[in-house]
Design a protein that fits this description.
Blueprint lengths: L1 E6 L4 H12 L5 E7 L5 H8 L4 E3 L8 H13 L5 E4 L8 H6 L4 E5 L11 H8 L3 E8 L9 E8 L6 H24 L3 E4 L2 E4 L2 E2 L17
Parallel strand pairs: 1-2, 1-4, 2-3, 4-5
Antiparallel strand pairs: 5-6, 6-7, 8-9, 9-10
Length: 219
């Protein structure tokens, strides 16, 4: 499948996806990397692998709708089967989301539906939670509100800083995101009527859940 990855920053999840494609853990090819920041290091990661890149900066367009229309035109040049949000720091319009309905994934650094939006690591520490994590979900019009596919949990220690907690979450993100992308590429994962389905089974609101030895986690 053709994959287009959207980024705004360093692209650590992008790198995990690149590595998984190269190793065969994702049955797909990254056709392009698109950024709204010209200085995003993720563009360098893509260039190092000879992956085409596109930069559309926010300042070039009058409003969000005009930006998203231009973004659609650029993305569609690559005929993507799946759009992968990997730290793309923009709120998308309904028109953009609906254009790619059912074929756009995002990873969010919290155990959704907890802590939608920004600054999740600080917020979870402020709340005194005992665990944190990341969620891969389909993108819908609701910010960080689409159906969850898979979550990974990490413990929170008493002396954790937001940076330490973020690093622990990143390790899990780099595992679960390529896994879910591969499920989609193998046509095992779909969104139907606003719900996520894996192998024909409706997933729970917190996504797929099983033990570590389940074959789904190794395919």
């Amino acid at each position: 499948m053709n994959l287009v990855v959207l980024i705004s920053g360093s692209g650590s999840n992008l790198q995990a996806i690149i590595d998984a494609c190269k190793s065969g853990k994702i049955a797909g090819k990254i056709s392009a990397v698109v950024s709204n920041k010209a200085d995003a290091f993720g563009l360098t990661r893509a260039a190092n692998e000879n992956i085409p890149t596109v930069v559309l900066t926010n300042q070039e367009y009058a409003d969000r709708a005009a930006y998203d229309e231009a973004l659609i035109r650029e993305i569609d040049k690559f005929a993507p089967d799946l759009i992968i949000m990997a730290g793309f720091m923009r709120i998308l319009t309904a028109g953009f989301v609906n254009h790619y309905s059912g074929r756009m994934l995002n990873i969010h650094p919290s155990l959704l539906p907890k802590y939608q939006g920004l600054h999740t690591h600080q917020r979870v520490l402020d709340a005194g939670d005992k665990e944190h994590g990341a969620s891969v979900h389909f993108v819908t019009e609701e910010l960080d509100g689409g159906p969850v596919v898979l979550q990974a949990k990490v413990p929170i220690f008493e002396d954790d800083t937001p940076a330490e907690l973020a690093q622990r979450v990143h390790v899990q993100e780099h595992f679960i995101y390529p896994l879910v992308i591969n499920w989609f590429c193998k046509q095992r994962l779909v969104m139907n009527e606003g719900k996520a389905w894996l192998d024909g089974t409706l997933l729970s609101p917190s996504g797929y859940a099983s033990d570590e030895n389940d074959e789904n986690l190794n395919d």
